[in-house]
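Moderator note: this is an archived Q&A kept for reference. The question asked for a predicted structure of one protein chain; the sequence and the answer are reproduced below.
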Amino acid sequence: MGGYLMASFPWYGLDDAFTGPRWLMQVGTSADGTVEHGSLGHGDVPTLKASLPMADPAPDAQRFAVVVTLAHRPVRRSADGTGVLDATSVSSAAWLAGVGLLGSTWPHRIDRSLRQDWLEQQSAIAWDLADNVEGPDWTSLTLPVEGVPTPFQYRESEFGWVLAGTAQDAHIGAYGRGMSAYGLGFSVIKDLGAYEA
């Protein structure tokens, strides 16, 4: 939990309407150790183990939603301190969520030797999609954040769904499978201990 506690921004998760299991995932840091983003899981912990060899699980076999919180960073220094990186944005949150979904739900029927190539290819596609969140591959969806109706960009794929938007103090991304995104709400997590079970 240490990395979560070092963040300078609040963590978002599903609000109290969700009563299922909650679990910690991981945080991402910059070159200087600053916490930039992190994820919190809800529902079933995704597993890549199929019940049958080389079979893909049914879409509703695992029911989970993962919420990604990304710090607002209007200016970010490069790792070597000599330049400036792009500001974080809804697109950044969408890409983190898209890659997270791929890592949780890749097809089991892909030969193990080809999985890395597949992940790299799909990650590039996820970036292209995230770079154009206002484009035709996305639809608008309004969900409550701290009870306030907030616009998100949303898309579905054969692997699950991804959404991204901006709250007052962070960007929020989310991805899931087997749980509908349409009934979700987000809130600031006041006690991370609920995710340590």
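Archived answer notes: The longest helix spans residues 90-105.
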